[in-house]
Design a protein that fits this description.
The protein has 64 residues and is mainly alpha-helical. It has two helices and no strands.
């Protein structure tokens, strides 16, 4: 990876994580009927973990 492509790769990785997080967080909010602060924190945290795992899984499959 060259210096020119390194920021682009980091930007794409951050964008992918943000997209996964948004989808998973919205799914969490749809499945919970009433949402208080603790549920938002737990949902956002679970969505972040899921986003990292989804990106890791996608990268593992694309390397084959």
């Amino acid at each position: 990876m060259t210096r020119r492509t390194a920021p682009r790769a980091a930007f794409l990785a951050a964008g992918e994580l943000l997209a996964w997080w948004a989808v998973l967080a919205l799914l969490w909010l749809v499945l919970i009927s009433t949402v208080d602060t603790l549920e938002r924190i737990v949902g956002a945290s679970c969505a972040a973990v899921g986003a990292v795992l989804a990106r890791t899984g996608r990268r593992a499959v694309s390397r084959r």
